[in-house]
Specification:
The chain has 106 residues and is of the alpha+beta class. Helices cover 51% and strands 22% of the residues.
Length: 106
């Protein structure tokens, strides 16, 4: 029983830390929405899109921890990253240069 409690406490601390990071992103970008996606054994990716079009992501060790984090942060969570949600992302010169570099082997 003690091992389970220790694991649960660790998961709660991780979810709380992620929630603080999500909240800070949201505050810096005038609000935020997100989407949680499985990334295999590595856990889950939390993709964040701010009201200003800024975006970022975080990785949680499990999908459950990611779900707890977005719930604690109080952001809107989308089932998938498409449509109106994806259209909110604003990319800048850096992203376009990186994407072009990938296409030409850079």
């Amino acid at each position: 029983m003690a091992d389970t409690q220790q694991v649960d406490a660790r998961a709660e601390r991780k979810a709380a830390k992620l929630a603080r990071e999500i909240s800070a992103f949201s505050k810096a970008h005038g609000g935020a929405e997100g989407q949680v996606a499985h990334i295999g054994e590595r856990g889950a990716r939390i993709v964040l899109v701010g009201e200003d079009g800024g975006w970022g992501d975080l990785v949680a060790p499990t999908h459950e921890i990611a779900e707890k984090a977005v719930e604690k942060a109080g952001i809107t969570v989308h089932e998938s990253f498409d449509g109106e949600f994806a259209a909110k992302v604003r990319t800048g010169p850096y992203e376009w240069k990186r994407m072009a570099g990938i296409q030409v082997g850079g």
